[in-house]
């Protein structure tokens, strides 16, 4: 089953937003984008001009952990990843974003009783009221920085993250195993090749009408704001990113700086070094956000828009506890 066959577009409004990160790439500017991830939007599909609404009841927002499954192997110390029989699977690519907006899965009408956490402006104090307005709509609710990407000691070549997925019924709280192919959607550099075989277990905390089938928009601090920016005026303990690429963020800045042609090893090293320095500088006062940003530099090899295969899995406790 491919995610694209399940799409039910939710209304993209500020009153009931379903786009956590990114919105459309301006078609007028897309022709000027080089064949790389620089300048590519965190979600590269455009938002439909109109859509029909859908309310998800608690019965339709079940976590995938309740489904029948089969187990995969995992290194010692890692959660056992169990595939969901008949679950969604296919091919796609991973993008990145962090706009600080309240996740769409924090709204009851989108997730029923399977609500994602939401935090106050400091991104650490939880807000329990699901009707709280997003910072991107003048409210005080935003994404918790505990939902940044992370690794576990002893869990080799497997990372964990939250993501926005294509908008379809019951997306909230479902999990997927992404296996990277070693190639990129817009270019294939040594960064992408070094990512081959690594796995990323993602949990859907956001859905978006601009996210295409098979695409997972990974939550990475510094990954780009997209259309909505709830960070710049709120996250006063973060450095200034207003001059960074709105779609693609710090890594897109580093791709431009390192260039797109030449010695592959030098490009690889330059991109990783540049991103590491930016993460350490921008998020010097926020350890959680810095760790999430460095995840892109280290675990993800500073690879922009990598291709992957995906399978739906039961959600491991390490993700459910942060969701």
Short summary:
This protein is α+β, with helices and mostly antiparallel strands.
3D structure, described in words:
It is a single chain. The two termini are 25 Å apart. It is globular, with a radius of gyration of 18 Å. A hairpin with a 6-residue loop joins strand 4 (150-151) and strand 5. The chain has helices spanning 27-30, 108-111, 190-195, 249-258, 264-282, 287-297, 317-320, and strands spanning 69-71, 82-84, 89-97, 150-151, 158-166, 175-184, 199-208, 216-219, 306-313. With 323 residues, it is an alpha+beta fold. The chain has one domain (3-22, 35-54, 63-115, 146-320): RlpA-like domain (Barwin-like endoglucanases). It has 7 helices and 9 strands, in the order αβββαβββαββαααβα. The strands form 2 sheets. It has a 6-stranded mixed beta barrel with strand order 3-8-5-7-6-9. Helix 5 packs antiparallel against helix 6 (287-297).
Strand order of the largest sheet: 3-8-5-7-6-9
Distance between the termini: 25 Å
Major pleated sheet: 6 strands, mixed, barrel
Amount of beta strand: 15-25%
CATH class division: Mainly Beta
| Extended strand count | 9
Number of helices: 7
Please state the second-level CATH architecture. Beta Barrel
* Shape verdict: globular
Mean pLDDT, to the nearest integer, reads 79
């Amino acid at each position: 089953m491919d995610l694209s066959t399940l799409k039910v577009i939710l209304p993209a409004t500020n009153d009931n937003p379903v786009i956590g990160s990114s919105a459309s790439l301006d078609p007028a500017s897309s022709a000027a984008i080089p064949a790389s991830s620089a300048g590519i939007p965190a979600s590269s599909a455009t938002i439909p001009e109109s859509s029909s609404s859908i309310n998800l009841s608690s019965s339709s927002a079940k976590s995938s952990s309740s489904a029948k499954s089969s187990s995969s192997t995992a290194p010692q110390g890692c959660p056992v990843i169990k595939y969901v029989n008949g679950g969604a699977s296919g091919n796609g690519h991973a993008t990145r974003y962090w706009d600080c907006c309240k996740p769409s899965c924090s709204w009851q009408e989108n997730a029923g009783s399977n609500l994602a956490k939401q935090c106050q402006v400091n991104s650490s104090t939880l807000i329990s009221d699901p009707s709280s307005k997003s910072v991107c709509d003048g409210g005080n609710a935003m994404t918790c920085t505990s939902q940044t990407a992370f690794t576990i000691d002893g869990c080799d070549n497997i990372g964990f993250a939250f993501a926005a997925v294509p908008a379809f019924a019951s997306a909230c709280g479902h999990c997927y195993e992404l296996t990277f192919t070693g190639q990129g959607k817009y270019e294939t550099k040594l960064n992408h090749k070094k990512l081959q075989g690594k796995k990323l277990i993602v949990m859907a905390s956001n859905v978006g009408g601009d996210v295409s089938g098979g695409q997972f928009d990974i939550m990475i601090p510094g990954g780009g704001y997209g259309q909505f920016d709830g960070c710049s005026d709120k996250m006063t303990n973060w450095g200034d990113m207003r001059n960074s690429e709105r779609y693609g963020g710090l890594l897109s800045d580093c791709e431009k700086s390192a260039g797109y042609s030449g010695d592959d090893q030098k490009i690889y090293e330059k991109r990783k070094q540049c991103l590491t320095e930016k993460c350490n500088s921008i998020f010097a006062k926020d350890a959680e956000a810095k760790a999430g940003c460095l995840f892109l530099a280290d675990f993800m090899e500073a690879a922009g828009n990598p291709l992957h295969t995906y399978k739906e899995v039961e959600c491991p406790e390490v993700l459910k506890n942060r969701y």
